[in-house]
Amino acid sequence: MTDIADSATDVVDDVASADDHAPADHGHDDHGGHHTSLGLSNMKLAMWLFLGSECLLFGALISTFLLSKARFITELVAGNPRVIESIPAGLAEEFIEAGTVEPIYDIPFTSGSSFILLMSSLTMVLAHKAVSEDDDLQTKIWLGATALLGSTFMAGQVYEFTVFYREGIEYGTSLYGSAFYTLTGFHGAHVTGGILMLLSLLVLAFRGKLKSNRAETVELVGLYWHFVDIVWVLIFTIVYLIP
Amino acid sequence: MAEQTADVAAAHGHAHDDDHGHHPTERHYWIIFAILAVLTAVEVAWSYLGLEGVSLWLPLLVMMVAKFILVAGEFMHLRFDTKIINGRVFTWAFAASLLLAVAVYFIVFAAFDTVFA
Amino acid sequence: MAMMEEPLALPSGTVARSRPLGAFSRPRETSGLVTWLTTVDHKKIGIMYGAAALFFLIIGGIAALMIRVQLAVPDSEFLSAEFYNQVFTMHGTVMVFLVVMPIGAAFANYLMPLQVGARDVAFPRINAFSFWVFFFGGLMLNTSWFLGGGADGGWFNYAPNNGIAFSPSNGIDFWNIGLFIAGIGSLTGSVNLITTVLNMRAPGMSLMKTPVFTWMTLVTQFLLLLAIPVLTVAQILLASDRLFGANFFNVEQGADPLLWQHLFWIFGHPEVYLMILPAFGIVSEIIPTFSRKPIFGYPFMVFSGIAIGFMGWGVWAHHMFVSGIGPLSVAAFTVATMFIAVPTGVKILNWLATMWGGKIILNTAMLFSIALVIQFTVGGLSGVSHAMAAHDTQQTDTYYIVAHFHYVLFGGAFFGFIGGMYFWWPKAFGYMLSERIGKLQFWLMVIGFNLTFGPMHILGLQGMPRRMQTYSDAHGFNFWNMAATIGSFILGFSTLMILLNAFVSYRKWVAADRPNVGADPWDARTLEWSIQSPAPDHNFDHDPVVTSLDDFWHRKYQKDENGVLRRVATGDELAQPGNGEGVHLPAPSYWPIVLAGSIPIIGYGVIYSLWLVIPGAVLMMASIYGWALEPADDLDIDDHHDDHAKELETVS
Question: How large is the ipTM?
Answer without folding.
Answer: 0.90
